[in-house]
Amino acid sequence: MESLLIFCSLLCIILGIIQLFFPKVVDSMEQYLDQLFHITEHNTISFRRIIGLTLIIVGIILIYSAKKNHFIGI
Known about the structure:
Layout: H1 2-21, H2 23-37, H3 48-68
Helix pairs in contact: 1-3
């Protein structure tokens, strides 16, 4: 359980950083998946900055929770 909590927190932070600071990477991934699954209609609503910040905050909260419960020794 402890390792899962730490993994999820780090994954949230990494995904948040990618969403917030590297939107071109996400655009290229979306285009690749559109081509892969032959998606013709794509309505994109750009919430990337909000999602990125939310993921970073969730990751930090998960790390704080792990530290508070002595799962990690930071």
